[in-house]
Amino acid sequence: MSIRLPKDTIARIFQTCSFQHDSTRITENTLSLMDKYMELFIREAVLRSIENKEQVKQEDDNQIDDSIVLTHKDLEKISGLLLLDM
C-alpha cells in the first residue's frame, strides 16, 4: 500500500500554512522528503487507530462483528500521542 500526495498539494500546504513570505520557495528534494514523511505519518496513524479500535473491541464483549471501520473519531483518539511521538 502506497500513499501518495501530489507534490503540488504538499507545496500548497507549505505555502498557505507555513511560509510567512510569498517569495519563499521550496525545493524538489524537500517535497520528496515531505512526501515520504507524510506517507509514514499517515500509515502510523492508521495502524495506531486500528490497534486502538481492536483494544476497545476486546474490552466490549458484546460486539460480534469482526470488521473494523475507522472514522475521524478514531484518528482523533490517537492524534495527541502520535504527534508527540513523531
TrEMBL record:
PANTHER family: CENTROMERE PROTEIN X. GO terms for cellular component: FANCM-MHF complex. Its main location: nucleus. GO terms for molecular function: DNA binding; protein heterodimerization activity. It comes from the Eukaryota. Pfam families: CENP-X. It is found in: Nucleus. GO terms for biological process: DNA repair; kinetochore assembly; replication fork processing; resolution of meiotic recombination intermediates. Keywords: DNA damage, DNA repair, DNA-binding, Nucleus. This is LAFE_0B02674g1_1. Belongs to the CENP-X/MHF2 family. CDD domains: HFD_CENP-X.
